[in-house]
Write a structure and sequence with these properties.
CATH architecture of chain A: Orthogonal Bundle
Radius of gyration of chain A: 20 Å
Largest sheet of chain A: 2 strands, antiparallel
Number of strands of chain B: 12
Largest interface: A-B, 36 and 41 residues
Strand content of chain B: 15-25%
CATH superfamily of chain A: ABC transporter involved in vitamin B12 uptake, BtuC
Oligomer: heterodimer
Distance between the termini of chain B: 23 Å
Strand order of the largest sheet of chain B: 6-7-8-3-9-10
Number of domains of chain A: 1
Shape of chain B: globular
Number of strands of chain A: 2
Helix content of chain B: 25-40%
Shape of chain A: globular
Helix content of chain A: over 70%
Order of helices and strands of chain A: HHHHHEEHHHHHHHHH
Chain lengths: 341, 284
């Protein structure tokens, strides 16, 4: 193995720019995909026109298909992918478990249950359902954390088992609640439980974007501490980390990101597990690089997955969670056998 | 096998008149399992003091309170009674960052969750000195490489930590502690995974660090012979009680050691006022 150089700011900026460029290309291609195919170049031209406010010469394709239909969906996939990946990377350090992920730990299902309970109690308050999703995520992380302890220590297997059991329990309760609700079809419920980006947004995309980037930024401020925390809490304390503060930020931030993602797209699985893992293999495990790389990588991954979900069996759409699970579950098994076996 | 010891500093050397660097006064602690009234383990009041450049070993059988005492010295736990002071300041009053600039701890092995290179690992020792979102500077890198050099591990720079042998890893962990530039260095059974050659090598390094770097070093160990040969001071614990504090020759009395360790130990006076401890099993 060649000598490994310590991380520099230049490398963080370089990798981020590279992934940002890939993200732009992927997003442009994704916007072009669909029943009416539009070239990435035309998409670029359309976006440029929209950005400069040059609306007079805009084609119908540009206005109706690109700007109204597909762009919001691609932007939503971008945000949800970034949120889930950073939440996954954060939980992995917090719980000292490379297999932690909002979906596997049941946090997504907990958030979904919270959101649905709020929808039943207050059907016309989208913010209440987001707040309830946040509370659901917080409660689930805390529950899984305490259930996953054995003899005062976090135990990898027990933790994952506690997560999987919580997820299946919450899904059952959600199924029960939603089938007894009037006016919701089973197909819609299944889609939502699997994760789906086609449902209408409860809040404006701009607000969602602001909340997501701010939360990712807050988690990023703890990234140097997370490097030490992932090696053990006592060790981190001896190296001067205020572990209580860092854990609180990541716990709140990770739960909030999961709640934001779930309340607009349901429970999309495995993104938070796979993306940080691939980024670690590509760029190393330093959180100062891992967090921006995971955010951009997660955005790319979910845009690709959603494009596939839209086009594989067109004109029918698959829930995007089905795509991520088909790839994610086998990789999860592989990692489980390699890491814990 | 006999191990050549280091000469003890003569009585009345310069630092003996200085105020102590580490002052432990009637410090006590008790673990109380949740939901129970009685405590599971009690460390009864212990007192000793150590100067700059001194090497102190804490010895005792299993469950005698060695690690508990070390945790009081690290500031991780706050004593229930008494106090622990470093250069006149009570440890529990220091914030984690300041504490990490003054005290470094080498723990028994803890598992790595994610792969990390030796250089990155040693650079973690600079964490208490860096600002948030600060990347390691040339100065930090230089200090990290020098720390690796100091423990004879310069050739390991840039390797992956999980690919190293137990002895190599131990050196890198020590290098990270040195990168913290501590005034107090604490080690919890650092010789656990080392063969006898590695153990002697490590103790020699620690002695050199203590004398040249003026660092105060406290080592928890099971190796009585090493403690006898290298320590300036020994703290002997048994069932949470302090049985003796002082120079090896004062603390290591044959009758006491036989009783405490429940083993046929033989203590003989050795060169340089350092006793030699042997296991004496008679053939049947």
């Amino acid at each position: 193995m060649a000598a490994v150089k310590p991380l520099t700011l230049r490398r963080v900026v370089g990798v981020s720019l590279l992934l940002g460029a890939v993200l732009l290309v992927v997003a442009a291609v994704a916007v072009g995909l669909g029943p009416v195919s539009i070239s990435a170049r035309a998409v670029g031209g359309c976006l440029l026109q929209a950005a400069t406010g040059n609306t007079q010469h805009m084609s119908n394709d540009c206005r109706l298909i690109v700007l109204d239909l597909r762009l919001p969906r691609v932007l939503l996939a971008l945000l949800v992918g970034a949120a889930l990946s950073v939440a996954g990377a954060g939980f992995q350090a917090l719980l000292r478990n490379p297999l932690a992920d909002p979906y596997v730990l049941g946090v997504s299902s907990g958030a979904a249950l919270g959101a649905i309970l709020a929808m039943i109690v207050a059907p016309n308050a989208p913010l209440a359902s987001m707040g309830a999703a946040f509370v659901g995520a917080l409660v689930t992380v805390a529950a899984v954390y305490f259930l996953g302890r054995r003899g005062g220590q976090l135990d990898s297997y027990t933790l994952l088992l506690a997560g999987v059991i919580s997820a299946s329990f919450f899904s059952a309760v959600i199924m029960f609640l939603m089938t007894s609700l009037p006016g919701r079809d089973l197909r819609g419920i299944t889609f939502w439980l699997m994760g789906d980006l086609s449902a209408p947004l409860p809040v404006r995309l701009g607000w969602l974007m602001l909340a997501t980037w701010l939360t990712i930024g807050a988690i990023y401020t703890t990234s140097a501490d997370l490097n030490l925390l992932s090696a053990g809490e006592r060790e981190a304390t001896h190296l001067g980390v205020n572990t209580g503060r860092v854990k609180l930020i990541v716990y709140l931030g990770g739960s909030l990101l999961t709640a934001l993602a779930v309340s607009v797209s349901g429970a999309i699985g495995y993104i938070g597990l796979l993306v940080p893992h691939v980024m670690r293999m590509l760029f190393g495990s330093d959180y100062r690089l891992l967090i921006p790389a995971s955010a951009l990588g997660g955005a790319i991954a979910l845009i690709v997955a959603d494009s596939l979900a839209r086009t594989v069996i067109a004109p029918t759409e698959l829930p995007v969670g089905a795509m991520t699970a088909i790839v994610g579950a086998p990789v999860f098994i592989y990692l489980l056998r390699r890491k814990l076996g | 096998m006999s191990v050549k010891g280091y000469p003890l500093p003569a009585e009345g050397t310069a630092w003996a008149d200085e105020p102590p660097r580490l002052l432990v006064e009637e410090a006590s602690f008790a673990y109380q399992p949740a939901g129970k009234r009685t405590s599971q383990f009690t460390l009864e009041p212990v007192s000793f003091r150590a100067q700059r450049g001194e090497l102190v070993t804490i010895v005792g059988p299993n469950a005698s309170g060695k690690t508990t005492l070390l945790q009081l010295l690290s500031g991780l736990n706050r004593p229930l009674g008494g106090r622990v002071e470093l250069d006149g300041e009570e440890l529990c009053r220091l914030d984690p960052r300041t504490r990490a600039q003054r005290i470094a701890v080498v723990q028994q092995e803890s598992p790595l969750v994610f792969p990390v290179s030796t250089t990155e690992f040693v650079l973690q020792g600079r964490h208490p000195y860096s600002r948030r979102l600060h990347f390691p500077s040339e100065g930090d890198l230089g200090l990290a490489l020098r720390a690796l050099e100091q423990v004879g591990a310069a050739h390991l720079a840039g390797r992956w930590l999980n690919e190293l042998s137990g002895g190599e890893k131990q050196r890198v962990v020590l290098a990270r502690a040195l990168a913290q530039q501590p005034m107090l260095l604490l080690l919890d059974e650092p010789t656990l995974h080392l063969d006898i050659g590695g153990q002697v090598e490590l103790l020699k390094q620690l002695t050199a660090l203590a004398t040249t770097g003026k660092t105060t070093i406290v080592v928890v160990t099971h190796e009585l012979e090493l403690a006898a040969q290298f320590a300036d001071q020994v703290v002997l614990l048994h069932h949470g009680r302090t049985l003796g504090v002082g120079r090896p020759a004062e603390v290591f009395e044959e009758a006491v050691l036989r009783e405490v360790f429940e083993a046929p130990l033989r203590v003989e006076p050795g060169p340089g006022n350092r006793p030699s401890i042997r296991l004496e099993v008679r053939p049947k």
